Amino acid sequence: MSDEKETISVRINRKECQIPVNSITYAQVSDKLCTIHLYGEDTPPIRIFLTIGALVEMLPEGQFLQVSRNCVISLAYYQHMDDKAVVLTDNVRIPYSRRHRTQIRSAISKYRNAYAQAHSNPQMQRELMEEFHAFDHFPLPFCIMETITREDTGTRDFLFRYVNDAFAAHVSLPVYQLINASFFSLFRNPDPQWELVFSKCSLQAQKMRVVLPGIQKNTAVEIFCYQPHYGFCACMMLE
Q1: In terms of Cα–Cα distance, which of 32, 37, 31 is closest to 64?
Q2: Which of 22, 93, 108, 165 sits at 20 to 30 Å (Cα–Cα) from 1?
Q3: What pLDDT, in 10s, does the model give residues 179-211?
Q4: CA separation for the pair 48, 29 (Å, rounded)
Q5: DSSP state, residue 215
Q6: Other beta carbons less than 10 A from residue 70's beta carbon
Q7: pLDDT per residue as tens digits for the range 128-150
């Protein structure tokens, strides 16, 4: 990303406090009172006197976007957008100015591509291999996928960054052909539910245990997915 700032500094009750940037989901300003919402059901919002312009200047460039005159969202918690609102993680709806629609879509694409480029390197690959080495000979199929947005089409895809022996055997492909390969290039016309699960897990940090149609076979498979790192989905098949 263009800015690696980890916290912003604000004064609360005359004390200087540090707010982790990656915990901020969105912020709204009303009558000069800024309410900063943080991730987590039990985490109360922070209220301080601050203008929307001052807040935008404090936040790292490329990670947040002003979607209306009085609201800023974190692109990391973006889920989707309809005709009236931007929907964030946990289905929080943020009304946006229609003139910002194209800007929002462009910002989301740039954010996700920048994140993917920053982490798609040999060092990242080695770190993933080391982190999940214990799964190499695990009896259940297991893989790690990274979510990307393709610049040429604007569509979402998923790249295999780690697979274990059991997963390779399950899909009847060698490990070397799977690593860094596109999910959609290897498995034609998969059920749309697969994309939905991968997206919710990798981008919204949702843990999911669901039954989906098999990738290659005319069977159903139960999977458990979680987010090991932002933009990544860990998927285990519970056969």
Answers
A1: 37
A2: 93
A3: 888 888 788 777 888 888 998 899 888 899 999
A4: 9
A5: S
A6: 14
A7: 888 999 999 899 999 999 988 76
Strand order in the sheet with 33-38: 46-49, 33-38, 24-30, 71-74, 64-68
Q: Is the pTM of this model over 0.90?
A: no
Of 233, 231, 238, 234, which is closest to residue 77 (Cα–Cα)? 231
Residue count of the chain? 239
How far CA 236 is from CA of 96, 98, 222, in Å, comes to 37, 40, 9
- Judge contact between 11 and 18, C-beta under 8 A: no
φ/ψ region of 231 (left if φ > 0, alpha if ψ in -120 to 50, else beta) reads left
d(CA 118, CA 32): 36
Tokens of 110: 């740039």
CB atoms within 10 A of CB 119: 18
Given a contact cutoff of 8 angstroms between Cβ atoms, the answer to whether 75 and 65 are in contact is yes
Residue 2 has pLDDT above 50, yes or no: no
- 78-81 sheet: strands from edge to edge: 78-81, 85-88, 92-95
Of 30, 33, 19, 151, give the one whose Cα is nearest residue 74.
Answer: 19
- CA torsion sign for 103, 202, 196, 191 is positive
| Ranges of H-type helices in the chain | 52-58, 101-119, 122-131, 165-171, 175-178, 183-186, 192-204
Q: DSSP letters of 125-190?
A: HHHHHHHTGGGTT-SS-EEEEEEEE-TTT--EEEEEEEE-HHHHHHHT--HHHHTT-BHHHHSSS-
Radius of gyration, CA atoms only, the chain: 20
